[in-house]
């Protein structure tokens, strides 16, 4: 079954001309409700977005929403988890917004979220992390956390190129490594029957069952390219220049994964030098954009990922714009979100700055245990919508959303996640929090 999309009447497409987004007064914006808590959150968020636009432009502008299907709703209605029409709509209408989509662990479908990012080549996952006054946080000085994550969105081990243990594909790869890279094959600890021999001895020593040692090795590939790194780091430094940021930090594990994560760091510095005229600072490896160039004074530095994850707790003020690879970016976004009071208000965008395509979405997932309870915080999708409005150039409406969020949090009428940590708070439902945001605009 296919999905028949009927564009809403009175709406027009957003387009891009010579690199500049052309946004009509009544743009058609496709939305995906999402799985789990997605529908609750979307119902609450769309009211906030519409209210902000109505208040800012008194009817002169409006968003013409067009539902497109993905995830469980799509599968139930069309037999397809990510129908072609959905991807095509996101392509045709340029700017869209989505709720979270489920990805099963271990088997089943691959991530639809990752698929959308890859199909539309949305190479930047942009996740700003800032503290809202009054939000309860596990750290002492959450106001010092003010970072913008640029996460590479199309490569790395996250691209999903991996083969299950025992399949012909993984066996073929094992054979290939054994024949071609004999020394490295030794590092695949249990890659052959011979090498699995002492497994049996160990099993006997702990009284385990006597059976032949299986050769079971799942194998994944981790592509990290110059071009992928260049467009990501270029976007991050350009953003830092536009926003007057102090630094851009390349976060990597390049001491261990030298030719993927280490290359990301080296290429990052190369981009800083070749595109922005950066020079080594005190003999390197850190760089600085010198006087006379746009962004003069911005420091380009790097840090190893594990050290970074402790320093965001101990020295967050030292970090500003973060450029990193796909998997690191995933971990870092949730960790930083926690520092400012949680994943419930962590927004994001997946963007291709050349084609203009952008899909806005929260950092969190479907939180399935809360599905259909009208309970969770809709702040993440509301703020993703705020990012979308700003991307469209509708800054007055975006500003109203920030005002509304500040007001709703200050009133201490908040969803369960904040209420359980905030003194004197009253717990409200997801939909009621949205009412509070609208009332405070
Ligand atoms: N972009 C996307 O579509 C994403 C999809 N996913 C998918 O989502 C599914 C579930 O993933 P899971 O690991 O449980 O992670 P989730 O982010 O869905 O949930 C983890 C926990 O985060 C808290 N949380 C999440 N959303 C909210 C919210 N809106 N308000 C308040 N608290 C919230 C809850 O914490 P508590 O229990 O403390 O109340 C929840 O139990 C998986 O299939 C995963 O693949 C995951 C991330 C992104
Ligand atoms: O695609 C998924 O299910 C998870 C994605 C995710 O965690 C993220 O992009 O932050
Ligand atoms: Mg994640």
TrEMBL record:
The record marks 158, 253 as: Critical for catalysis. Its EC number is 1.1.1.42. Keywords: Glyoxylate bypass, Magnesium, Manganese, Metal-binding, NADP, Oxidoreductase, Tricarboxylic acid cycle. NADP(+) binds at residues 102, 364-370, 377, 416, 420. Its cofactor is Mn(2+); Mg(2+). The modification Phosphoserine is found at residue 111. Mg(2+) binds at residue 330. One of its GO terms (biological process) is tricarboxylic acid cycle. D-threo-isocitrate binds at residues 111, 113, 117, 127, 151. Belongs to the isocitrate and isopropylmalate dehydrogenases family. PANTHER family: ISOCITRATE DEHYDROGENASE [NADP]. This is Isocitrate dehydrogenase [NADP].
